[in-house]
Write a structure and sequence with these properties.
The chain is mainly α. It has eight helices and five strands; from the N terminus they run αααααααββαβββ. This is PML C-terminal domain-containing protein.
């Protein structure tokens, strides 16, 4: 029954269920609920997310989909790093610059991660944007980029 919206709506007072899914009414309802259950202001502030964070989080999740987890993408956004900053770091210093940015020590913790596999996956994804063609010298196979796939030439 927990996920049944009809049951949930029947359990709520009428003042809360009129005008559901109307943004202005939803704000009034949320405000009333917060007041009734005495949520402290500092708790609300600590849990709030800014519009730039939400936009960065969405962009990072979309960009890194399949390369890293959505949790890592959100950690990047929480670390106040956007896609433009990551791309600029990669262009300026490749792996080392991206690693420095992501692993920066903040309050004795990495800003995002120190995990080499994760950083490599991020750098590999960033590299696709700057790569038109690449010679893979280790294997001697020439790879050509088509979209996000590499094929043998």
């Amino acid at each position: 029954m927990r996920n049944n919206p009809e049951v949930s709506q029947r359990q709520m007072p009428t003042e809360f269920t009129e005008g559901l899914h109307n943004a202005a009414q939803d704000i009034k309802i949320l405000s009333t609920l917060i007041d009734k259950i005495n949520v402290p202001n500092d708790k609300i502030i600590s849990m709030a997310k800014s519009t730039p964070f939400i936009l960065a989080d969405r962009a990072l999740k979309k960009y890194f989909k399949g390369a890293v987890t959505s949790v890592i993408a959100s950690k990047i956004a929480l670390g106040r790093i956007n896609l433009t900053t990551l791309k600029k770091a990669f262009q300026l210093g490749g792996y080392d610059s991206v690693e420095m940015l992501l692993a920066e020590n903040i309050n004795n913790k990495p800003r995002v991660t120190k995990n080499e596999k994760t950083i490599k996956a991020i750098v590999d994804r960033l590299a696709w944007d700057t790569l038109d063609e690449a010679d893979v010298t280790a294997s001697g196979v020439r790879l050509v980029r088509i979209g996000r796939q590499a094929i043998k030439d």
